[in-house]
Design a protein that fits this description.
With about 240 residues, this protein is α/β, with parallel strands linked by helices. The chain has two domains: about 170 residues, Metallo-dependent phosphatases (Purple Acid Phosphatase, chain A, domain 2); about 60 residues, no CATH class. The protein contains seven helices and ten strands. It has a five-stranded mixed beta sheet, with no helix packed on it. Strand 7 and strand 8 form a beta hairpin. Helix 2 packs parallel to helix 5, helix 3 crosses helix 4 and helix 3 crosses helix 5. The radius of gyration is 18 Å and the shape is globular.
Length: about 240
């Protein structure tokens, strides 16, 4: 359980200026259908703004519940992850995009909306039927909410993205693909503009910060550990449920 955020050991920021968002916030790692962990976190975090780094669907068993919970909380900021992008591509082009999405967790998302009878080897018109069923179960409002999710949020010298950023380019010049799928130099080359990048996408054993990166994805769907970071007041404090 998340304990006392303000009594935990704060991390040392050696090579970058201290994190300086206009107000403190909590960044939350990839949820991936773990509505149980999401509910625990929402009941236990301090009353500060929350920013989720994306990947709400797939792999875990309750993606539908996760989407509905987050959509019902306009006070929470949600970033679009690559799994949301794969789901939207499936909605647009089910027969072309469906096989890949199903391999990476789309089956669990379909099942969470009550759509069964689909396997990773399903092709052709059956995928179009599954797409039609998913659109009906989600409804226009929920689909529109997912479609409108931003790919980054910047607060002072901290930017929250899903997967990473090209260290050679300013945040405003990053492509959607890089923000949602990552960049080969992101974990190798520190940024030179002093911007801290908070991200998920890549599973780590423990949430950490290093060379301008703050990683918060601890693989909730597999580890049953949803991690988050309190960011503000010149410090970063990690915890999890």
């Amino acid at each position: 359980m998340i304990r006392s955020w303000f009594q935990r050991r704060s991390a040392k920021l050696a090579h970058f200026d201290p994190v300086a968002p206009p107000q403190p916030f909590i960044a939350v790692g990839d949820v991936h259908g773990r509505a149980d962990l999401l509910d625990k976190l929402l009941q236990s975090v301090p009353d500060v703004p929350l920013i989720f780094v994306g990947d709400y669907v797939d792999r875990g068993d309750h993606s539908a519940d996760v989407l509905r919970i987050l959509k019902a909380r306009p006070d929470i900021t949600c970033i679009a992850g690559n799994h949301e992008q794969m789901m939207l591509k499936f909605l647009r082009e089910p027969e072309e995009e469906g096989p890949r999405w199903l391999r990476y967790g789309g089956l669990q998302t379909l099942a969470s909306f009550g759509i069964t009878g689909i396997t990773e080897s399903t092709t052709g018109g059956a995928l179009t039927c599954a797409r039609d069923a998913l659109m009906a179960r989600m409804g226009d409002d929920l689909i529109g909410w997912v479609y409108d999710l931003p790919t980054s949020v910047t607060a002072g010298n901290v930017t929250v993205v899903h997967a990473g950023a090209d260290p050679a380019l300013p945040i405003e010049h990053q492509t959607r693909r890089v923000l949602q799928w990552g960049h080969p130099e992101f974990r190798r080359t520190p940024r030179r503009d002093g911007m801290w990048i908070v991200h998920g996408h890549t599973i780590v054993d423990e949430a950490y910060l290093e060379n301008g990166r703050i990683a918060v994805d601890t693989g909730a769907y597999a580890t049953s550990r949803l991690s988050a970071a309190f960011i503000g007041n010149g410090e970063v404090i990690f915890d999890h449920v």
